[in-house]
Amino acid sequence: MSTPSAYLPVLQTGRWFAHLPPDFAQPLIAMAQLRHRATGEVLFRRGDAPCGLYAVVRGAVSISGTRGRADEARAALLIRLEPPHWFGEISVFDNSARTHDAQATEPTTLVHIPHERLQHWLQAHPQHWHALALLMTDKLRSAFVAMEELALLPAPQRLARRLVMMAEGYGQWTAEGQSRRVIEISQEQLSLMLAISRQTTNQILKDLESRQLVRVQRGEVEILDLAGLRGVCA
Question: What pTM did the predictor assign?
């Protein structure tokens, strides 16, 4: 059976973990457990008690939320997290309930640092709170950028920017210039992520296809010209 340390090569491709001091990274892995989730299986829900810190090492997790009464509820997909993304740090800091839902979008394996063990260790080694804070501030910067784009940019630019960010792993990889060619995401997921209609999403993607920047297939978007797609973002 695999152990968390077996996934160290995956975790090391991530900028945050790769830059952790050894006296934090090693205890973190020593505290860790592996969690496996099937497609559609929930990791935690909004309002759940803190359960620790997670890293995706295989598969993908969607972070989403729903508002409104059951008969007219509206859903928002905030982000799709793939290896080697870490998440869950907000509840580590404030010891409060989960703010959103986390659900596996495909068969997924996660490295999990249980909440109580992590809290106990950090109380004994408070100097490492700063390293954990860097994980949260990076997410905060991204959230501010997303809020600005939602307020100021038209839908085509927002969609192109999101595809570029996803292709580049949201800037989380250590390798400079690394990108993925195929993004596994449906048009419905993209529309929820960007708060635009499914029809508008389809129209924008068709335009990008006509310019030979992307190729759209069922459940995925293939990036044909990343530099050209960046040009749309300007």
Answer: 0.91
Q: Which two tokens stand for residue 30?
A: 């020593």
Q: Which regions of the chain are under pLDDT 70?
A: 1, 68-73
Provide the token pair at 115.
């909440």
pLDDT of amino acid 72:
63
Distance between CA atoms of 226 and 168, rounded to whole angstroms?
Answer: 10
The values of phi and psi at residue 115, to 5°, are -60, -50
- Identity of the amino acid at 169: G
Any idea how long the chain is? 234
Segments of the chain assigned to CATH 1.10.10.10:
154-233
Rounded to whole angstroms, the Cα distance separating 44 from 69 reads 21
DSSP structure string for 112-136: EEEHHHHHHHHHH-GGGHHHHHHHH
pLDDT digits (tens, 9 = 90+) for 85-133: 999 999 999 999 999 999 999 999 999 999 999 999 999 999 999 999 9
Q: What are 65's strand-pairing partners?
A: 76
Pick the CATH number of 4-144 from 1.10.357.10, 2.60.120.260, 2.60.260.20, 2.60.120.10: 2.60.120.10
Residue type at position 55 = A
At 196, the amino acid letter reads: I
